[in-house]
Automatic annotation (TrEMBL):
Name this protein carries in UniProt: GTP-binding protein
Transmembrane regions: 87-107, 119-139
Top-level taxon in the UniProt lineage: Bacteria
Keyword Transmembrane listed: yes
Alphabetically ordered keywords of this record: Membrane, Transmembrane, Transmembrane helix
Amino acid sequence: MALSNDIVLRPRFKIKVERYNQSILSDFKAAKTTQTDFIVTQVDDHVFIKFPKHKQTFWSPQLHLEINKIDDNSSIIYGLFGPNPTVWTLFMFLHFVVASIFIAFGIWAYSNWTLEKDIAIQVSMMMFMVIIWIVLYFAGSIGKASSKQEMHALNDFMHQVLGTEQKKTP
């Protein structure tokens, strides 16, 4: 599970599998009942793998798989690691609020500048919003780093169900 760069907060991957997609989906459906380490949910061609509530933390990841049919003998799996959708929505909402406040103070600063009034408060608040955005980014990075072992566990479980060899990263 090598990542292309360190900036990505929600790693994605794709795997081509030489099996029919319904066969893969039925394997995940069977895995749902034969193990208790993960919660496996299936909706159409989408499979969601996450940890049970008692093992979850705030940053616990989940794995979303989309299993698409290429032909009768092969499928492609698109995977996305990410936090709980509620956590991700909150995280994006905070980014939106910070950006909106930054823009509002920018408009206010421009208005005061054209009126030749003092803009120190507005520029200070804009700089503070940039600092908050950087803090949010690093909080997300720390959350991702703290859940790396859980991401590997989800990845290993996926490969176990698929019966595929996973590429080892150095």
